[in-house]
Structures are given as C-alpha cells and as structure tokens.
Amino acid sequence: MSDSSPLGSQSESGSGHESVVDRLYDAQTAARERRLLTVVATVAGLALATVHWSGLLAGGALVGLCQPTLRRALVAGLGFGLVVLGVVAAQFALAGSLSASLAMGPLLALGVAVPLVAGPLGATARGLLPDAPSRDAEPGE
Predict the structure, then answer these.
(1) Dist. CA 45–CA 141, nearest whole Å
(2) For the residues of 30-64, what is the DSSP string, one character each?
(3) Cα–Cα distance between 74 and 70 in angstroms, integer?
C-alpha cells in the first residue's frame, strides 16, 4: 500500500483508524498545534451555536477533542462556554441592550448557565478516547 491515501499510512490490520488516532494524539501533544486546533474548534463551535443551541454541545466536543486528557477537555469546554458568554455580551452591548438583558433576573441566570453547562458536557466526548500518550515516554516503554 502506498502512503498517498487520505488517512496516511494504514495499520497492519488494514484500517486507517489507527493512523487517524495517532494524528489526533500528535496534535494533542504538540502545544502549538493544540492551540491552533482549539482556536479553530472554538470558531466552528461559535458558528454552530448561532444556528442552534446544540451547537454549544458540538463546540464543547470540538474543543474537548483538541485536548490530550479528559480533565483538560472539561476545562477547555468551560472556557468555550465563557467565550460564548463573552461573545453574547458583546453582541448585546453593540446592540445597546446589555443593561436591559442584565435586568432580566431568572432568565439571565438561565442564559448564563446553559453555555457553562453545555460546553463541558460536550467536552466529555473526549472521554471516548484514551488519554494521549505523553511525548516524554521512550519508544521502548
């Protein structure tokens, strides 16, 4: 088999799954690639969240999959929720309705809680894969 397939070199079993997972792990353990992927995932998640509220879950899952461990994925999901709140607050401020929005009481609490719960909840998708192997590990270990 040649290495020109879209999934890269394939594993001995013939499926490209291992090569895709290895690429994901490589990106998760390289700080620069991980940051870039997290920014792209955040932008994609924000775009999805403008279409439907389930985009908050999808965005959390996207930023979570960029992280090497489940714990870091949950923190990234919470960060995504905070970014969503910041973007929404900026939109309200630009529209001149931020003060009226902040005076809504229980509805404001719901609007704040949803992204702060949905981001980490979506990020739990990272738990479907084992933690990325550490780059410090020797090949013989």
Answers:
(1) 37
(2) SHHHHHHHHHHHHHHHHHHHHH-THHHHHHHHHHH
(3) 6
Cβ(48)–Cβ(104) below 8 Å:
no
The C-alpha atoms of residue 61 and residue 76 are separated, in whole angstroms, by 10
Nearest-angstrom CA–CA distance, 82 and 102:
16
> Are the beta carbons of 14 and 118 closer than 8 angstroms?
no
Q: Centre a 10 Å sphere on the Cβ of residue 79 and count the other Cβ atoms it contains.
A: 17
| b/e map 16-26, b = 16+ CB within 10 Å | eeebeeeebbe
Are 116 and 82 spatial neighbours (Cβ–Cβ below 8 Å)? Answer: yes
Distance in angstroms between the alpha carbons of the first and the last residue of the chain = 29
Residue 19 near residue 8, CB atoms below 8 Å = yes
Per the CB < 8 A criterion, the answer to whether 81 and 59 are in contact is: no
Q: pLDDT of 54-105, one tens digit each?
A: 999 999 999 999 999 999 999 999 999 999 999 999 999 999 999 999 999 8
